[in-house]
Design brief:
Elements: E1 4-8, E2 14-18, H1 20-28, E3 42-45, E4 48-56, E5 62-68, E6 74-82, E7 88-96, E8 103-110, H2 111-114, H3 117-120, H4 135-148, E9 155-159, E10 163-165, E11 172-175, E12 178-180, E13 185-187, E14 202-204, H5 208-213, H6 223-231, H7 237-247, H8 249-252, E15 261-266, H9 275-282, E16 297-298, H10 303-313, E17 318-321, H11 329-341, E18 363-368, H12 372-375, H13 380-384, E19 387-391, H14 400-415, H15 420-428, H16 433-450, H17 457-479, H18 487-501, H19 504-516, E20 523-524, E21 540-542, E22 550-552, H20 554-563, H21 568-576
Parallel strand pairs: 6-9, 9-14, 15-18, 15-19, 16-17, 17-18, 20-21
Antiparallel strand pairs: 1-2, 3-4, 4-5, 6-7, 7-8, 10-11, 11-12, 12-13, 21-22
Helix pairs in contact: 6-14, 7-9, 7-17, 7-18, 9-14, 10-11, 15-17, 16-17, 17-18, 19-21
Length: 577
Amino acid sequence: MDDLLTLIDGEDNTTPIRGMRAALAPVLRGHDVPELLQPAGWHLDARGVWRLVRERADDGTYTEREQQVTTRPILVTGKLWDVTSDEVSLVLEWYTPRGKRGRWTRAVVPAEDAYNRAKITRLASLGAPISSDNARHVSSWLYALTEANLSGLPEAMVTRAMGWQGRQGEHGYLCGRTLYRADVAIRADAETSPVHWPDGYVHLDAPGGIAQAVAGYEPRGSWQGWCDALASVSDRPAMVLALLASLVPPLMRPIPGIPNFGVDWYVDTSQGKTTALYLAASVWGNPSERDHDGTIQSWGGTRAGIEALAQALGSLPLILDDTKQARRPETVADVIYAACGGRGNLRSQSGGGLRDTPVWRTVLISSGEQPALTLAQAEHGGAAARLMEVEGSPMGEVSRQAGQIAKALKRELLSHHGHAGPRLVQWLQQDGIREGLRARYRHLQSWSEAQVQSGGVESRAADYVAALQLAAEVCRDALGIDLPDDWRDLVWACVRRAGEGADVSARAMADLVGWLAGQGHRLYIQRDAEQETPSQGWLGSESDTHPWAYALIPSELDRWLRGAGYRPAEVLGNWSR
């Protein structure tokens, strides 16, 4: 009876049929599929999918025959529930002859696409036995098979983002293909058959390039090896800051009030600017900017691409190397605003309405040869309130010895990584931890605000400093790593320097006055009746009674502001206040 099942057809009628595995035995050859009920009116075997057709003869009688729908088996082997939206996806598998053994291909498809004859044909590009001729019947078959096995299909949860899973993080923390809970780590890679899905597992639905980008979020080497590597630079404030910035993102969901922000290291080439990024990335996975599965990405992507990556990372840091690789200067500003804003752009969908807006809770960790805020000059004021700039080598000095330490550190981190982050998120899921951290963060906010010397950027950055201080305390309590406190002096220096340069309107006025000092020949002075019209035209007039008083032609002022990288409407609005 192992290969016999009962198909319930109607309230009182049951029809015994042979099990699906037995029917597929000639092509399974070790491939594992769930044992399912075959729905009434359909038949599946090694030759493909068949449907029962009733035909009326001339004499009014009916005959039944099987009509072949596909020439190869295709079936539903699992069901996935989105942990956030509750949308349903199906795992589809189909057989393709190849050599002596053939192969089974697996794809995850939204249920609405599987049941839509126009959309299901897209699987033809993956080798599925579907065409425009049979798509209607294939969709009907997949729906009937799913409905006949509502309680028999293997089920798991699916997500489009790593990090905390569920609205309150109740399903655990997903890093790469491993789901971390308080006392257990559950792993299933993309090739795992639904028959063997672990209970409570959350499957990462990461298409194409995103799957490659998240592949490196796995542990390698040993925890002790990573700790030894960290010890070689734990006395260097900029390196400690990189570590703390990488530990902040998983704190954001459990502790309301921690904002997205960024940290950017800038220094001349060959002075170790990526060393800090290596340490930050090693908390979660492979800290490489060259490997295909490296967790350090390039600034060379489009804003849409980087936004898609931020969405897939969810509650992990977004690490971007080398701002000079950015396609356009405005891309830098756009990415800073998007990453630190934590929400993607509103986009319409083809059928009307809006698509779901992607969100993320992250810290942007960046490096370059010049400040990211310089490249983002048109957006400089707002970006300065979101990004802390750290000048100079992350190693603290440029020397042969520091270079050797940085080189050895990178080598060790490539061998030992991906241990600290999982340890942290498992600790965060222990009873009572989150409640205590929420209270502690509120206290640190008050402490940080008391250190602020002026409003504006400094006041806003006080929350960043409080989050970094909380990360330092969590690093001590969860990981057993007690770090020196001198990183705080570095952070406050960065915050205050940003505050001094963040008033765009004041800086624009200073730049304008300096420029006008060399443009006297283009300023009309009433007392000089003999003044000739300059070849470039007039800019405006200069008062003959009040020094440094000008009346400028609006179009000329607007042209200069744009050429200098300012937004005229923003600057002029602030000047008029």
